[in-house]
Design a protein that fits this description.
By secondary structure, this protein is an alpha/beta fold. Helices cover 35% and strands 12% of the residues. The radius of gyration is 25 Å and the shape is globular. It starts with 47 loop residues before the first helix and ends in a 6-residue tail after the last helix. Bound molecules: pyridoxal-5'-phosphate (PLP).
Length: 484
């Protein structure tokens, strides 16, 4: 496919001026003197027309799931039906205030309550909190629950065990709660039961499992893992961010897990990425219900309320009740698909992944044998002439495809993690496989020079992390100007 991205010399919004934009006069006599600004604020002054053109120009230089195939492994960049966005944007839904009295937000609470119930069924858990704002935040919440649970039982447990196939946020979240991390090596891409059995002890607080793991492999011995960990007195934590691989087929509850988080912004139709907002609800078994963050939406007779009366609650983990707009999209998505539809979504995610894997295996290494769930990891380690996986990824942009995730997971050398998702057609998968094969066979000098057709050429991978420019003020300073 020939692809060429738009390229505009679009200034920053602060640098744009607009003669038609008029300052809106503020009737200063209506405001208390202390609240009236001495100086006009330093915010962009654009009229609607120029504002729209500015953002449309920027969007044309970007790539999103609405522009094309976006097989970013681990991130589930699937196409999300617009109906969910439309429902979440309805005035009645988007203009409610979390401080409104309970009597005025009965519908909102009903939706939150029903979503909690539906997610409890999907995960096989006893109760759910919608508060956490992201997957990692859900993990952090789950680890706080773990700590509170062991403290309540007078247990001094300081270790969290994980396999080396876990998602990177898992150890980070546990460490933030103060746990020591014990990583065990995997065997053929799965948890090594012997290594686990020798790692557990009376210090084990929890075992965290990303399942399917970062290789896209489902852990077939999850219940044996649960037996080992439970026998040692630890809790089982399920990273359910990859739930789109197993919905309706099995559940963390059935597999013997005690705590799980979901990523509504991956599996349940809110676009992932761009800094949010997201939602990482946490489900727990009945025995842990009393530790959930307060409040949770509850039902009494025909009415709904916010239940703050949770005896061992870890407290709040989010302002008010969580990201309501994301709840509504997940609620709409689940109701529009129904139980059968969700199961079919998972079946399709797994089918697409294995179909694409079979195509890619013909021209790239795909370590670890056997079927995958929703994603798989290829390797560019045998590429020649100083060509690296990064070069393939950059060149794919010139062919009109967003690059897959590269250099993650760390256990595969020169990794390329591909998640086609359930929403893509066979034609798209065939087209992508053809493009990747072409790229693999292109001359090294072309690959090293890619991307050529994108609005931005190759950027330094480390610069943005080392040299943070987070605001316009920092940008001016970086440019050598003065701070404003
Ligand atoms: C398996 C897995 N766990 C956890 C996370 C973290 O989720 P978040 O980015 O919302 O914090 C992700 C993110 O994609 C993930 O793929």
């Amino acid at each position: 496919m020939s692809y060429r991205q738009a390229k505009h010399d679009e200034p920053l919004i602060y640098e744009l001026t607009c003669d038609d934009a008029k300052e809106i006069p503020i009737p200063s006599d209506l405001l208390p003197e202390g609240l009236v600004r001495k100086q006009t604020p330093n915010i962009p002054g654009l009229c609607e027309r120029d504002l729209v053109r500015h953002f449309v120009a920027l969007s044309q230089m970007n790539f999103g799931v609405d522009s094309g195939f976006y097989p970013l492994g681990s991130c589930t960049m699937k196409y999300n039906p617009k109906i969910n966005e439309e429902i979440a944007a309805l005035t009645k839904a988007s203009t409610i205030h979390p401080g409104q009295p309970i009597s005025q937000i009965q519908g909102t609470l009903q939706i939150m309550y029903e979503l909690q119930e539906m997610l409890a069924i999907i995960t096989g858990m006893g109760a759910v909190s919608l508060q956490p704002a992201a997957g990692a935040h859900g993990e952090f919440t789950g680890m706080l629950i773990t700590r509170a649970y062991h403290e309540k039982h007078g247990q001094d447990r300081n270790q969290v065990i994980l396999p080396d196939t876990s998602h990177g946020t898992n150890p980070a979240s546990a460490a933030m709660v103060g746990y020591d991390i014990l990583t065990i090596p995997s065997k053929e891409g799965k948890v090594d039961l012997d290594a686990l059995a020798s790692a557990v002890s009376d210090k084990t607080a929890a075992f965290m499992l990303t399942n399917p793991n970062t290789l896209g492999i489902f852990e077939p011995e999850a219940d044996d893992i649960a037996d080992i960990v439970h026998e040692a007195g630890g809790l089982m934590y399920y990273d359910g961010a990859n739930m789109n691989a197993i919905m309706g087929k099995t559940s963390p509850g059935k597999l013997g897990f005690d705590i799980v988080h979901l990523n509504l912004h991956k599996t349940f139709a809110t676009p992932h990425g761009g800094g949010g907002p997201g939602s990482g609800p946490v489900g727990v078994i009945k025995e842990l219900e009393n530790f959930l963050p307060a409040p949770v939406a509850a039902k009494c007779g025909d009415g709904y309320y916010l239940n703050y009366d949770i005896p061992d609650t870890i407290g709040k983990v989010h302002g008010f009740h969580g990201n309501w707009g994301v709840f509504l999209k997940a609620y709409t998505y689940i109701l529009s698909l129904g139980a059968d539809g969700l199961t079919q979504a998972s079946e399709r995610a797994v089918l697409n992944s294995n179909y694409l894997r079979a195509l890619v295996e013909k021209f790239m290494d795909v370590p670890y044998p056997g079927l995958r769930k929703h994603e798989f990891v290829a390797s560019g380690s045998s590429l020649e002439n100083d060509v690296r996986t990064m070069d393939l990824a950059k060149r794919l942009i010139d062919h009109g495809y967003h690059p897959p995730t590269v250099y993650f997971p760390l256990i595969v050398d020169e990794s390329m993690m591909i998640e086609p998702t359930e929403t893509e057609s066979k034609a798209t998968l065939d087209g992508f496989a053809r493009a990747l094969e072409n790229v693999v066979n292109e001359p090294a000098e072309v690959l090293h020079d890619a991307p050529r057709n994108a609005s931005v050429r190759r950027v330094s991978e480390a610069e943005a992390a080392k040299n943070l420019i987070l605001s316009y003020k920092d940008y001016l300073e970086f440019q050598g100007g003065s701070r404003v």
